[in-house]
């Protein structure tokens, strides 16, 4: 099953009701046992999905009605992060074992399938102009960048899996940020990147916890209340930040004009 979201202007968000905001930017029910589900956004033509194989095997769907191709990666590259227990991703016959929060980059042109009784794979694909090698990205093998502080309640570790360095991609960037125990804030102070769209997928929240995700132009922020394994589309004009009621992590993924991680504009707290 695939859904399509169209691009929106900041003024649409500023006059939207809570229900309209959620319909436009929040992605719910991505992870359903026995299915691969996807949402395609016209913002940078990013596609995010969830694959929950259960006892069977799932193939990455072509979603021809939306992508216009016979195979999903005919014109795209793919990022995968396992948000469940250990499972396998098979790429052109080669089997990769992914544990919780391990990642995989898959280059253009490959065929992909998923197995793992308790695995849940988060997927993000973007248009690609070239083919780059598939790479396993072990969560434990990536040196994290430490950000924030306990005093500011924004201490966190940013695991950059694919960020325009080391692993070659066309436009895709993604990684995982883990909030330290006792801290609540992600991406604060916030930033914008006019040349890229980003999608956040919040994971590892307890059932009763929520993240209050901040979005919108800096002077006109709105919020979305987000549960475990839900994703939020962040268009180029929107900040993307949040505070959680308990511990959590999130997968960030971007595509756009370039794959230069540092091409962003900090937003001062005074501007909010
Ligand atoms: O906690 C953070 O700060 C982040 O994870 C920031 C993301 O990497 C991001 O927004 C990239 O533009």
TrEMBL record:
<dbReference type="Pfam" id="PF04962">
    <property type="entry name" value="KduI"/>
</dbReference>
<keyword id="KW-0862">Zinc</keyword>
<keyword id="KW-0413">Isomerase</keyword>
<dbReference type="GO" id="GO:0046872">
    <property type="term" value="F:metal ion binding"/>
</dbReference>
<dbReference type="InterPro" id="IPR027449">
    <property type="entry name" value="KduI_N"/>
</dbReference>
<dbReference type="GO" id="GO:0008697">
    <property type="term" value="F:4-deoxy-L-threo-5-hexosulose-uronate ketol-isomerase activity"/>
</dbReference>
<dbReference type="InterPro" id="IPR021120">
    <property type="entry name" value="KduI/IolB_isomerase"/>
</dbReference>
<protein>
    <recommendedName>
        <fullName>5-dehydro-4-deoxy-D-glucuronate isomerase</fullName>
        <ecNumber>5.3.1.17</ecNumber>
    </recommendedName>
</protein>
<dbReference type="GO" id="GO:0045490">
    <property type="term" value="P:pectin catabolic process"/>
</dbReference>
<dbReference type="GO" id="GO:0042840">
    <property type="term" value="P:D-glucuronate catabolic process"/>
</dbReference>
<dbReference type="InterPro" id="IPR014710">
    <property type="entry name" value="RmlC-like_jellyroll"/>
</dbReference>
<dbReference type="InterPro" id="IPR007045">
    <property type="entry name" value="KduI"/>
</dbReference>
<keyword id="KW-0479">Metal-binding</keyword>
<dbReference type="InterPro" id="IPR011051">
    <property type="entry name" value="RmlC_Cupin_sf"/>
</dbReference>
<comment type="similarity">
    <text>Belongs to the KduI family.</text>
</comment>
<dbReference type="GO" id="GO:0019698">
    <property type="term" value="P:D-galacturonate catabolic process"/>
</dbReference>
């Amino acid at each position: 099953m695939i859904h399509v979201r169209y691009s929106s202007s900041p003024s649409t968000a500023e006059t939207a009701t809570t229900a309209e905001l959620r319909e436009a930017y929040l992605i719910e029910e991505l992870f359903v046992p026995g299915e691969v589900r996807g949402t395609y956004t016209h913002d940078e033509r990013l596609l995010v999905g969830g694959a929950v194989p259960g006892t069977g095997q799932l193939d990455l769907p072509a979603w021809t009605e939306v992508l216009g191709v016979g195979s999903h990666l005919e014109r795209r590259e793919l990022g995968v992060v396992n948000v469940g227990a250990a499972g396998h991703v098979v790429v052109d016959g080669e089997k990769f074992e992914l544990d919780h929060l391990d990642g995989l980059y898959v280059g253009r042109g490959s065929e992909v399938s998923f197995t793992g009784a308790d695995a849940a794979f988060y997927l993000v694909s973007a248009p690609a102009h070239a083919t780059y090698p598939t790479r396993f990205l072990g969560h434990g093998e990536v040196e994290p960048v430490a950000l924030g502080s306990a005093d500011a309640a924004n201490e966190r570790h940013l695991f950059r899996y694919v960020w325009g360095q080391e692993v070659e991609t066309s436009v895709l960037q993604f990684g995982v940020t883990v909030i330290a125990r006792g801290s609540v804030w992600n991406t604060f102070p916030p930033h914008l990147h006019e040349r890229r769209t980003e999608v956040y997928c919040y994971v590892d929240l307890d059932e009763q916890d929520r993240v209050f995700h901040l979005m919108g132009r800096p002077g006109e922020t709105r919020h979305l209340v987000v549960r475990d394994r839900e994703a939020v589309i962040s268009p180029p004009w929107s900040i993307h930040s949040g505070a959680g009621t308990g511990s959590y992590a999130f997968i960030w993924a971007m595509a756009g004009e370039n794959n230069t991680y540092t091409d962003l504009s900090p937003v001062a707290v005074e501007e909010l």
